[in-house]
Amino acid sequence: MNIVNFIPITAFTGGIIIGLAVVIFFLLNGRLVGISGIASNALSSKENKFDNILFLLGLILGPIIYSFFSNQSVSITISNSYVVMILAGILVGVGTRISGGCTSGHGISGIGRFSLRSVIATVSFMIVGILTVLINNLI
How many domains does the chain contain in total? Predict the structure, then answer.
């Protein structure tokens, strides 16, 4: 699988599936999808965390199952050092806390509800992501 190839129908279909998953999650759980919130709830001491663990397990197993049935494998080469990746993870965590949610929460659920806060957060995520790639390519 070449991740560089862009096929509009695949992107459209993926968007529809993500949208349906968000709606179904909301109808079944009465809350919006946000991976940071789901991960936080799964790691907390709350009693009702089984659905959160299943959701995260689905995120991990989904690509593996797809790869198995499609006979396509995805290989990823990590070129950054572990120190850079740990620092990046910490910064993402801090940014998630400051913005009151993660990219999936703001970008999918928040914008879908026409939340101005989520639009601003998503634009901020995109700008910082673009700047990070540009700076990383210069170093």
Answer: 2
- Both 48 and 35 in a single domain? yes
Residue 133: closest CA among 74, 77, 80: 80
Please tell me whether residues 117 and 127 are part of one structural domain.
yes
Residues 96 and 64 in one domain: no
Q: Residue 87's Cα: distance from chain center in Å?
A: 18
Q: Bin 78: left if φ > 0, else alpha if -120 < ψ < 50, else beta.
A: beta
**1 and 60 co-located in one domain:** yes
Domain limits for position 21 = 1-76
- pLDDT tens string 77-136: 788 789 988 998 888 888 888 888 888 889 888 888 899 999 999 999 899 889 988 998
Residues 6+ apart with CB under 8 A from 78: 85
Report H helices in the chain.
8-29, 35-43, 50-70, 82-99, 103-104, 111-112, 116-138
CA-atom Rg of the chain in angstroms: 17
Prediction pTM value: 0.70
